[in-house]
Amino acid sequence: MKDLKICxxxxxxxxxxxxxxxxxxxxxxxxxxxxxxxxxxxxxxKGRITVLAGATDDREVIKRAVAGCDGVxxxxxxxxxxxxxxxxxxxxxxxxxxxxxxxxxSGWHITCDGRDRYSWKLKALVKIAGPLAKLARFADxxxxxxxxxxxxxxxxxxxxxxxxxxxxxxxQGLPVWSRHVGDPILKTNLTRRVDFAxxxxxxxxxxxxxxxxxxxxxRRSPSAVANGLQSDLVERSVGSPPSRRRAxxxxx
Length: 252
Ligand SMILES: NC(=O)c1ccc[n+]([C@@H]2O[C@H](COP(=O)([O-])OP(=O)(O)OC[C@H]3O[C@@H](n4cnc5c(N)ncnc54)[C@H](OP(=O)(O)O)[C@@H]3O)[C@@H](O)[C@H]2O)c1
Prior knowledge:
Bound molecules: NADP nicotinamide-adenine-dinucleotide phosphate
Shape: globular
CATH topology: Rossmann fold
Domain NAD(P)-binding: 10-206
Order of helices and strands: EHEEHEHEHHEEEEHEHHH
Pfam families: NAD_binding_10
Number of helices: 9
Distance between the termini: 30 Å
Region (Disordered): 230-252
Oligomer: single chain
Radius of gyration: 17 Å
CATH superfamily: NAD(P)-binding Rossmann-like Domain
Structural class: alpha/beta
Protein name: NAD(P)H-binding
Largest sheet: 6 strands, parallel
CATH class: Alpha Beta
GO molecular function, one term: oxidoreductase activity, acting on the CH-NH group of donors, NAD or NADP as acceptor
């Protein structure tokens, strides 16, 4: 199989750097986009990836970066109050080759079909911290909502990966996922950031995830283990062929 050429939009962030590493481990050709001021954060990958410096909502930068790519991994960043996420998403939707796999990152607060059931804690966070962040002109959660609305409405080959709370630490393997927040398997609400990145990269070659918005959780988290993923099954599925892993990891 031909090695993929992929673009990572937001490559210099924590999630982005893990994605670069996973992609290089798979032998993919990587083009990374990040802000001019952040290029040095990618020094560890010098000579192994192509870096394009610029705002990730700059349509010209994105157009050049995604040209000829088989897949695009995009970190949706709701920073500022000027529609940064929406601009990024729209540029990727408009300029990526039509057959490309497009994988976007977001949080559980995004809903695709309105059937997610949120805890009071998450509802309160979105209701209180959201407006405060907007008031301080720091971040705008509605921007990520609008970005995802456009992605869901597009006829591209998209996936929106909805991350739970994140923690650092060694990989536990590919996270498990469900279509709806509120499903018991997601209850632990914690994923290693390195594994969030692994799920994003893996989604590039998983057609089952086309036009899905999987909500993910760590595969060794108590709720994943308790709800259908016995620990011995987890052991056996890590490192097994993709079809086997997905049959075990998916939960709808
Ligand atoms: N943090 C969480 O608990 C959590 C939970 C669930 C889902 N997520 C999702 O995971 C993804 C990654 O988030 P993360 O929190 O882990 O952070 P991250 O990977 O470090 O990404 C932060 C991104 O924001 C960019 N950025 C920072 N300040 C900016 C500014 N002023 N203007 C424009 N861009 C700016 C960074 O670019 P530079 O490198 O240029 O600074 C970087 O690309 C996001 O899509 C988020 O919605 C996060």
